[in-house]
Design goal:
Blueprint (H helix, E strand, L loop, with lengths): L16 H16 L2 H8 L1 H9 L2 H15 L6 H14 L2 H4 L1 H7 L16 E6 L9 H7 L3 E7 L7 H4 L1 H15 L3
Parallel strand pairs: 1-2
Helix pairs in contact: 2-3, 2-7, 4-5
Length: about 180
């Protein structure tokens, strides 16, 4: 996930249909699905304890995200396997810490990553990503050294699960470019 805002003097109407659809999905997500992020960031321990208290609670909390954040809903066995991994390893609560560190009450400029502007960055754009950024906006922000980007016709927030072959190839292609950068 790579977030970029619209460059100055830019308008969503100047984007193609693909990017406008991505932004419409992001708008829907921010209005109807984003509350989880604030809960994870501000009540990290509470949500971790509650979700880890029951396999049904965990399946409900994680499973709904697989359903609504994916391009195509993953098979039930895949969702159950992922939730089972969290359940058996008891790692769900610690998987939330990055929300608290980046958005929670203790977040500060000192806790944010620095020194990445000069590093080569690659971006795989999937149409059903929950908070997508048009490639042109990423290029125009100047906040990253974008050396490689690719647009995909399928895939969502869980691209590594949904489109593993494509994402692997993207990684290999990016490394081929970044290694030279």
């Amino acid at each position: 996930m790579l977030r970029a805002t619209a460059p100055p003097n830019s308008s969503p109407s100047s984007l193609d249909e693909f990017d406008r659809a991505c932004l419409a999905r992001a708008d829907y997500f921010l209005k109807h699905e984003f509350a989880y992020r604030d809960e994870h960031a501000t009540k990290t321990a509470t949500i971790g304890i509650v979700v880890e208290s029951s396999p049904v609670a965990m399946l409900a909390w994680i499973g709904e995200k697989f359903i609504s954040w994916s391009d195509d809903t993953p098979p039930l066995d895949t969702i159950l396997a992922d939730v089972t991994l969290y359940w058996l390893t008891r790692t769900f609560p610690t998987s939330l810490y990055h929300y608290r560190n980046s958005r929670g009450p203790h977040a500060s400029p000192e806790t944010q990553p620095t020194g990445i502007r000069d590093k080569p960055v690659g971006y795989s754009q999937f149409p059903k990503e929950i908070t997508p950024s048009p490639i042109e906006w990423v290029k125009a922000t100047g906040g990253v050294n974008l050396v490689w980007a690719k647009r995909h016709e399928k895939g969502g927030h869980f691209a590594a699960l949904e489109r593993p072959v494509e994402l692997y190839q993207d990684l290999m292609d990016f490394i081929g470019v970044a290694w030279k950068a």
